[in-house]
């Protein structure tokens, strides 16, 4: 039987060899060469990569514009924001000195202290003073003029440097903002109106307010003041049209342009073939846009200095005013740039590079171990945990969107605001990650169970090895006993065909033709060599 099987195998090998030789000798027709007219293969989805890159580039260009328009809207629309921006200038020494100098220049332009003193002294001289007294009076004329000017300068300085001046400055700033708002939003019913003759001030509204003020103070005669319907023309309508146009653009773009910029970034990520690359591009866009604006503001300081010299103004004062005006924008630009770096790093972690994959595997392993530990302590999130595990990607997207909305609501941003939002967002995302109940971790053994299973498997392996050694020894003894009796291996196999136990144990009933002999020889002791 064994010889027949070997012959069959040899025949099969010969057949395979002959078939292989025939395949080697058979000529193969070469493939036809590619024709020049054949169109090149196009990679599917290339338009998505192009559109995604285009959207991200456009959004990057809009980043600095969005920051400026948002600031302009806040300053023009929000009165408190406008006052908070300009009111601190009243306490700055450089600004105070500039105000004192400008005030004295305005006073000197209207009042000639030398001429005023001369007129007074001439009037005194005409009173018939003695010659020596008149000569002494003429000697005191120049010091008197200088003293009078110094007296006015001292009075102006005390007023500007007093605590009450800050309140006056804030009140004037608030009034200026209200006047600007009234001029930009007036529809004909306010003080500033637009007529066919040009821009004018409606005196009727002013007289009515004065009348109400006098009546409230208890001056009853004010009630007889008649209504006035007169408009005083103060200029053409070009200036007012420009103010209203600028106000309308700032109010609209300041609100919608940042939203459009964020939407373009988000759309670029959604369309992209490789979203991790798009996230990196978005981060770079934020960093470039914010960094470019911050750099432009930094370059503006030398320009302001040159402008101050040309206008014969205090360089220090204009630097303070410039810094106060663009301070919030510059801070927002720096924060946006840093936020872009963070987004770029996050996109890199989402990518397919070896360090990024290892980082995700490391963090995922920590979270998985934490979930198993919590499950071992009895924490079971049930259906909610299964839902979190199934929709974990949409949940992360929702957390990111809510973080962006929160940052948008906190404008103007500060470093503390951004840090707080990021910490809260990461904490919420991590907690929801630990509350997940993933199906592949439900039946996963704990560390103690794994160690116990390993020890049991090792014990089973040792027992199996011992049994194998005992079986091998018994078979060897059986073979040696058969050889001593002159029985071949084939005969031993045939004799034990109906035996279900190993030699040396209780054997089955002997079969015909030597079964008894095999049973007897199996019990023979192993000869000593």
List keywords for this structure.
single chain, 19 helices, disordered C terminus
* Side-by-side strand order of the widest sheet: 1-2-3
Low-pLDDT stretches are: 496-529
**How many strand units?**
3
Label the structural class.
Answer: mainly alpha
The largest sheet is: 3 strands, antiparallel
Mean pLDDT reading: 75
The total of helices stands at: 19
Fraction in beta strands:
under 5%
Summarize the amount of helix as a percent range: over 70%
Give the termini distance in whole angstroms. Answer: 36 Å
- Which of globular, elongated, flat, extended, rod-shaped describes the shape? elongated
* Helix-strand topology string: HHHHHHHHEEHEHHHHHHHHHH
Q: What Rg is obtained from the alpha carbons, in whole angstroms?
A: 49 Å
Can you put this structure into words, describing what you see?
The structure is a single chain. The two termini are 36 Å apart. The protein is built from 19 helices and three strands. Strands 1-2-3 form a three-stranded antiparallel beta sheet. It is an all-alpha fold. Residues 496-529 have low confidence and may be disordered. The chain has helices spanning 2-25, 46-77, 79-86, 93-110, 113-125, 131-139, 141-160, 163-185, 203-216, 238-271, 275-310, 315-349, 354-376, 382-390, 392-409, 415-434, 447-484, 489-495, 515-522, and strands at residues 192-195, 198-202, 231-235. α3 packs antiparallel against α8, α11 packs antiparallel against α12 (315-349) and α15 runs antiparallel to α16 (415-434).
């Amino acid at each position: 039987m064994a010889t027949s099987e070997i012959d069959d195998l040899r025949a099969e090998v010969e057949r395979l060899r002959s078939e292989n030789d025939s395949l080697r000798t058979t000529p193969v027709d070469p493939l036809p060469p590619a024709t020049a007219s054949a169109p090149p293969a196009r990679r599917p989805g290339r338009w998505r990569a192009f559109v995604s890159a285009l959207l991200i580039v456009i959004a990057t260009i809009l980043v600095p514009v969005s920051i400026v328009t948002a600031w302009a809207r806040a300053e023009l629309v929000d009165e408190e924001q406008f006052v908070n921006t300009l009111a601190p200038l009243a306490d700055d020494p450089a600004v105070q000195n500039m105000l004192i100098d400008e005030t004295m220049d305005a006073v000197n332009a209207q009042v000639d202290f030398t001429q005023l003193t001369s007129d007074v002294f001439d009037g005194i001289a005409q009173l018939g003073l003695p010659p020596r007294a008149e000569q002494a009076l003429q000697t005191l004329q120049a010091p008197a003029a200088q003293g009078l000017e110094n007296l006015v300068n001292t009075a102006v300085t005390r007023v500007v440097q007093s605590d009450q001046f800050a309140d006056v400055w804030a009140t004037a700033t608030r009034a200026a903002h209200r006047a600007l708002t009234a001029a930009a939003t007036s529809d004909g019913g306010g003080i500033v109106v637009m007529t066919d003759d040009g821009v004018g001030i409606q005196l009727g509204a002013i007289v009515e307010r004065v009348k109400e003020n006098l009546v409230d103070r208890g001056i009853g005669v004010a009630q007889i003041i008649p209504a006035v319907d007169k408009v005083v023309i103060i200029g053409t309508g070009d200036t007012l049209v420009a103010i209203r146009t600028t106000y309308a653009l700032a109010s609209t773009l300041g609100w919608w342009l940042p939203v459009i910029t964020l939407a373009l970034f988000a759309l670029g990520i959604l369309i992209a073939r490789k979203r991790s690359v798009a996230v990196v591009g978005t981060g770079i866009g934020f960093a470039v846009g914010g960094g470019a604006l911050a750099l432009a503001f930094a370059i503006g300081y030398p320009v302001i200095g040159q402008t101050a010299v040309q206008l014969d103004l205090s360089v220090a004062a204009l630097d303070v005013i410039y810094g106060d005006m663009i301070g919030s924008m510059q801070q927002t630009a720096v924060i946006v740039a840093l936020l872009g770096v963070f987004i770029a790093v996050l996109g890199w972690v989402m990518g397919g590079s070896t360090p990024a994959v290892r980082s995700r595997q490391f963090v995922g392993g920590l979270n998985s171990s934490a979930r198993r530990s919590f499950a071992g302590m009895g924490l079971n999130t049930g259906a909610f945990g299964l839902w979190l595990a199934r929709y974990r990607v949409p949940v992360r997207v929702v957390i990111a969107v809510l973080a962006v909305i929160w940052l948008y609501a906190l404008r103007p941003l500060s470093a503390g605001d951004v840090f707080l939002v990021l910490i809260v967002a990461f904490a919420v995302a991590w907690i929801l990650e630990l509350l997940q109940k993933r199906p592949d971790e439900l039946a996963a053994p704990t560390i103690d169970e794994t160690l116990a299973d390993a020890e049991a498997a090792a014990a089973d392996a040792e027992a199996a090895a011992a049994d194998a050694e005992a079986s091998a020894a018994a078979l060897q003894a059986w073979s040696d006993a058969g050889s001593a009796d002159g029985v071949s291996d084939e005969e031993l196999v045939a004799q034990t065909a109906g035996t279900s136990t190993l030699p040396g144990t209780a054997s089955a009933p002997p079969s015909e033709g030597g079964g008894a002999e095999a049973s007897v020889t199996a019990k023979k002791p192993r000869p000593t060599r």
